[in-house]
Amino acid sequence: MSKKLFIETLGCAMNVRDSEHMVAELHALEGYELTDEAGEADLILINTCSVREKPVHKLFSELGVFNRLKKPDAKIGVCGCTASHLGKEIIKRAPYVNFVLGARNVSKIAQVLHKDKAVEIEIDYDESQFAFKDFRTSAYKAYINISIGCDKQCTFCIVPKTRGDEISIPADLIVAEARRAVDNGAKEVFLLGQNVNNYGRRFSGEHEKVNFTELLRRVSALEGLQRIRFTSPHPLHMDDEFIEEFARNPKICKSMHMPLQSGSSDILKAMKRGYTKEWFLNRAAKLREMVPNVSISTDIIVAFPGESDEDFIHTMEVLNTVRFEQVFSFKYSPRPLTEAQNLEEVDSQIGSERLRLLQERHDEILDELKCEHIGKVVEVYFEELRHDGYVAGRSDNNLGVKVKGSEELLGTIANVKITEVHRTVAHGEIVA
Ligand code: 5AD
Ligand code: SF4
């Protein structure tokens, strides 16, 4: 009987792809098959996130739960960003953990499996050209890494310390991977990196210098590929050439993630984001002007150390001007190894109140935007069969849409007229 692997993935899309890579390696080299029951697994992996404090706390209580319900001989491995950050401390606090594998050491999964108490968290380990085995969670959409690590030094962010310096993956490898995914039936590729539009600054070894805009052109030239998405771009690197390619290239889905973090130029400076409120507004305006149906999502942190009421008002102004289609908002959480960790914090209640105000205003904006969708026709790629007789997918500008239908719709792209809009999903009917 084959061995069973249970894997829990927290955090971002990079982690999702890292998990796919580990599943693929473990299947090909060790014969593991996936299970969604931790209690029947021979190996339990948690792929962790360390970007905020809460999930890190949760890790140890979760590990305790897994330890209680696992089969007697089953192994437990902790992978990802918290593994990079805490390293052997994890085994000290939870001695039943069998190995710790950092976010930049994913390719070593089949090795650490056989080294009890192994801690592999080398921050400058270069996996940028490692030939991972193939595995995809979705048959319809292929996640593809275009770089590893992050070269930015945002003062709130732990990621450069968990994922190391940024190295781009050679363009020919990316195009070949996209080709294979399309040959296997994917109509959409999702290009991933901490900072995608900084692509091409550094490769390991001699490689053709290709920037992100050129990479988009090359990937989009693939026959059979219909959609390209990417995350996350950085507002600082949104030059005209990039926005124009985004607007002009019909295969690029018209949804852009623009992580604002703060609307105050002073706070942006303290965060070392490299742009001002004006630059951000200018880029968002150019996008809205060139791509009328674009949907813009963002990340916002409130109560960064030193944030005054006035700074927060600047953030609310950007919210009201750009009218983001989606906002991921967080209260600042001091992280170890970051420049901002020792700065004096904003009063916690003030922080919570700002978060509430921001979310409340965003919800109002969403309600206003809702009405604009009704009656519009959008192109939807169907990816998920629901139990209630519906099939769901995303419009090219990232609206979650469901229609009545069955399996035959999966993997197809159709025009859908929107009939109803709720907070997280719209309903529609297929039109010719
Ligand atoms: N506190 C709160 N939010 C954070 N993020 C990153 N670091 C922190 C932190 N220390 C948020 C940012 C980032 C998203 C992935 O998480 O908004 O874009
Ligand atoms: Fe979390 Fe950031 Fe690591 Fe992704 S890269 S898992 S968001 S800490």
Q: Can you put this structure into words, describing what you see?
A:
There is one protein chain. Helices cover 34% and strands 23% of the residues. It is α/β, with parallel strands linked by helices. It folds into 3 domains: 118 residues, Methylthiotransferase, N-terminal domain (Rossmann fold); 230 residues, pyruvate-formate lyase- activating enzyme (Alpha-Beta Horseshoe), CATH 3.80.30.20; 54 residues, OB fold (Dihydrolipoamide Acetyltransferase, E2P) (Beta Barrel). Helix 8 packs parallel to helix 9, helix 11 packs parallel to helix 12 and helix 12 runs parallel beside helix 13. The longest helix is centred in the last third of the chain and has 26 residues. It is globular and about 55 Å long. The protein starts with a strand and ends with a strand. The structure holds 5'-deoxyadenosine and iron/sulfur cluster. 5'-deoxyadenosine binds next to strand 13.
Output the strand order for the largest sheet. 2-1-3-4-5-6
CATH level-two architecture of the largest domain: Alpha-Beta Horseshoe
What oligomeric state best describes the polypeptide chains here? single chain
How many β-strand stretches? 19
List segments where confidence is low: pLDDT < 50 over at least 5 consecutive residues.
none
Q: What is the general shape?
A: globular
Based on secondary structure, the structural category is: alpha/beta
**CATH domain topology of the largest domain:** pyruvate-formate lyase- activating enzyme
Percent helix among the residues?
Answer: 25-40%
